[in-house]
Design goal:
Strand 2 and strand 3 form a beta hairpin. With 274 residues, this protein is an alpha+beta fold. The protein is built from 8 helices and 13 strands. The chain has one domain: q2cbj1_9rhob like domain (Jelly Rolls, Sandwich), CATH 2.60.120. Strands 1, 2, 3, 4, 5, 6, 7, 8, 9, 10, 11, 12 and 13 form a 13-stranded antiparallel sheet that branches. Helix content is 24%, strand content 26%.
């Protein structure tokens, strides 16, 4: 799978070693991003094979107060696309997972998610958004703690005016400290904790002919360090925690949709079976 990476990124062990301090000390929480990490031909093939996200059997169309986006509802949606399947398999491989673990300085062994719960293919169209939030904390099948997110953006000729920046907010939700434009072949990696607030809260302003496309991979471990533990976050299964931005009280809702409220954590088990 060496052909998936640009030549300058083939030595992932050295890259992790040289980038670890930058990752760990980044504010408002540990993160890093790389540009032109993968061979363009590989990502071009994925774009050419981009799935029909209107297929309701394979994709969810979230359209509520907190998010307006399309996401994978089943790993079966990804298995039938060879270019995408090969790429996702690499991102779940020992080589790449070991790189993520090393760059983040995590002592616990990281585990990828073959079910792509909450991850996989994401697409947001004009007017769409994803309000600022902290992610769900446990894998419902493995009972492991969610530790790392990796996002790969696939948006060519994406102008600043289109918006869709990944915003990273401080833990008091007073300021957006980092804004990352979701341009083609940009990969972002960041920690998942009770205070890793992120999102793209402003409606997308791209042309109707474009959409914000990304791939999302999540990595887990058996427990987490004491400094990352919060009683409201880690003592029980918790779904996504939405946060109001400063001077925007009431822009999000933490009341669950009825299907999540009824089934709770079993909602995610249903997603796995589908």
């Amino acid at each position: 799978m060496k052909h998936l990476l640009k030549d300058e990124y083939q030595d992932l062990d050295s890259l992790a070693e040289s980038s670890r301090t930058k990752y760990i000390t980044a504010k408002p929480f540990p993160h890093i991003y790389f540009d032109n990490f993968f061979n363009e031909e590989v990502l071009n093939n994925i774009l050419s094979d981009w799935p029909n996200t209107k297929d309701k059997k394979k994709f969810y169309n979230e359209d509520g107060k907190n998010e307006k986006k399309i996401s994978t509802s089943s790993p079966l949606a990804l298995d039938t696309i060879p270019s995408l399947n090969e790429f996702l398999n690499f991102l779940n491989s020992f080589r790449f997972v070991n790189f993520v673990q090393n760059i983040a300085g995590i002592n616990e062994s990281l585990v990828p998610d073959p079910y792509f719960i909450g991850g996989g293919v994401h697409e947001i169209k004009k007017g769409g958004f994803l309000k600022v939030h902290a992610d769900f904390n446990y894998h419902p099948k493995f009972k492991l703690s969610r530790r790392i997110n990796a996002l790969i953006y696939l948006n060519k000729e994406w102008h600043e005016s289109y918006g869709g920046h990944l915003e990273l907010w401080d833990r008091k939700m007073q300021n957006c400290e980092v804004k990352i434009l979701p341009i083609f072949n940009r990969m972002v990696i960041f920690n998942t904790t009770y205070f890793s607030y992120h999102g793209h809260p402003n409606p997308l302003n791209c042309p109707e002919s474009k959409s914000r496309k990304s791939l999302a991979l999540y990595y887990y471990s058996n427990g987490r360090p004491k400094e990352e533990i919060h009683e409201d976050f880690d003592n029980q299964f918790r779904t996504t925690m939405w946060k109001n931005r400063k001077n925007n009280q009431g822009e999000v809702s933490n009341s669950m949709p009825i299907y999540k409220r009824i089934f709770g954590k079993f909602y995610y088990k249903i997603k796995i079976k589908n």
